[in-house]
Specification:
By secondary structure, this protein is an alpha+beta fold. It has 6 helices and 13 strands. A 5-stranded mixed β-sheet has the order 5-4-3-8-9, with helices on one face. The protein has a 4-stranded antiparallel β-sheet with strand order 10-11-13-12, with helices on one face. α2 crosses α3.
């Protein structure tokens, strides 16, 4: 099945959305971007996900991230569904969300991007889209992908966390350890010699002593 691998450039597709017709590269501009797919409109898990995404939209905007969703229904259904999503959030039930939803009724884009879930099908027997998250950098290349089955809702706080990590590590020669959150200490990448690390990280480098005697666990405050 066609799909995207890390480092691949996003296809510059055209699509109808709830915010009008777009060309994907023009939509992204010089920003980071998140494309997240949904199995179907008017479904319970998807409604909670898009509600949470709408609530977190200001946080993504602060990070210069443009959000865009995809679902295998048409624009009119998307607009009607948007009312339900806003109502779920306790907001006025308008057709306006802080990000567009792509119409992909024929599943052309879902097939191109490798988003279909082989185990989940609609009443006509057609496969539904899985819950895919693609994060693209300003160079339009795929920096991260997460694939969930249709039955498991995503954690958008985690998506925000990985965006923080991707943006930090794109600018600095560091890696983020397990359960890292913005402001926590980070790790010096193994390819940086100790003398260079001291120059790069003037706030200091702490090396944890290990039974192996190897000096690979090197921490420094977040740059």
């Amino acid at each position: 099945m066609p799909g995207l691998l890390l480092g691949d450039e996003a296809p510059n597709f055209e699509a109808d959305t709830t915010h009008g017709r777009i060309r994907f590269h023009d939509f992204l501009g010089d920003s980071w971007g998140i494309l997240f797919s949904h199995p179907r409109d008017f479904t319970p898990v998807c409604t909670t996900e898009l509600g949470r995404a709408a609530k977190l939209a200001p946080e993504f905007r602060k990070r210069n991230v443009k959000m865009i969703a995809l679902s295998i229904d048409d624009v009119n259904d998307h607009l009607a569904w948007s009312k339900d999503i806003n109502a779920y959030n306790g907001d006025e039930p308008t057709e306006k969300l802080p990000f567009p939803i792509i119409a992909d009724a024929k599943r052309d884009l879902a097939i191109q991007l490798g988003m279909l879930d082989p185990d989940e099908r609609d009443k006509e027997g057609m496969p539904l889209t899985a819950r895919v998250v693609f994060v693209f950098g300003p160079d339009k290349k795929l920096k991260l992908s997460i694939l969930y089955p249709a039955t498991t809702g995503r954690n958008f706080d985690e998506i925000l966390r990985v965006v923080d990590s991707l943006q930090l590590t794109a600018k600095n020669k560091v890696a983020t350890p397990v359960d890292w959150k913005r402001g926590d200490r980070v790790m010096v990448i193994p390819s940086i010699p100790d003398d260079e690390a001291k120059k790069l990280f003037p706030e200091g480098v702490f090396t944890k002593e290990l039974p192996s005697g190897k000096k690979y666990l090197r921490y420094t405050p977040q740059p």
